Amino acid sequence: MKKNMAKDIFELVKKLGFEKVYIGGHDIGAHVALSFAVNHPETAAKLIMLDTPHPDTGMYHLPMLPVFGANYLYPWWLAFNQVKELPEQLLEGRMDIVIEWLFKNLLKDQESISDFDKAVYSSAYNDKNAIRASNAWYQAFPKDIEDSKTYDKLKIPVIGIGGSGYDLLQMSLPNTATNLQLKKIEDCGHFILSEKPNETAELMINFLMQ
What we know:
Distance between the termini: 32 Å
Strand order of the largest sheet: 1-2-3-4
Order of helices and strands: HEHEHHHHHHEHEHH
Helix content: 40-55%
Number of strands: 4
Low-confidence stretches: none
Mean pLDDT: 96
Radius of gyration: 17 Å
Largest sheet: 4 strands, parallel
Shape: globular
Strand content: 5-15%
């Protein structure tokens, strides 16, 4: 669960001798970053959430089937990755199919992720143990949601930067933080660091310099 992953980072921060850190993350990394800030508030100075909010009870309302006529990307993989054992049996040695599909559908600028990049991702996830481990991030969502119910609102400065995930950040983060900024990167898919690196970096740097 993300709370445990956040504690690992906290222990590393202590080991390195830092008293305060700025922390941020993208997608599941953002879940971990928020968990760090909430569970170790004495160590977190500022928080950056990139394109994805922390799991909350709203996830239980995601439709099991695509909504007829709705213009959105149906997130089928959230449910598929909950299944134990079957994904690695189906996908071992074939993760390139999934990787290719995800980038094709989650990017607006298809040139921002190269074939080499995709090959690196596919190689990292192709083994059955890697598939099982990565799916465990998703299988922890119900526990992450329960943890989120106990979290107080953050008082530290928080920024949510989103491309295609901006609306989700806009819905979720006001319930999470009192000192909040929201920034939208236009004409961008989910992988904002790859598609709009300069714009994303500028927003992050400006936030950290404040």
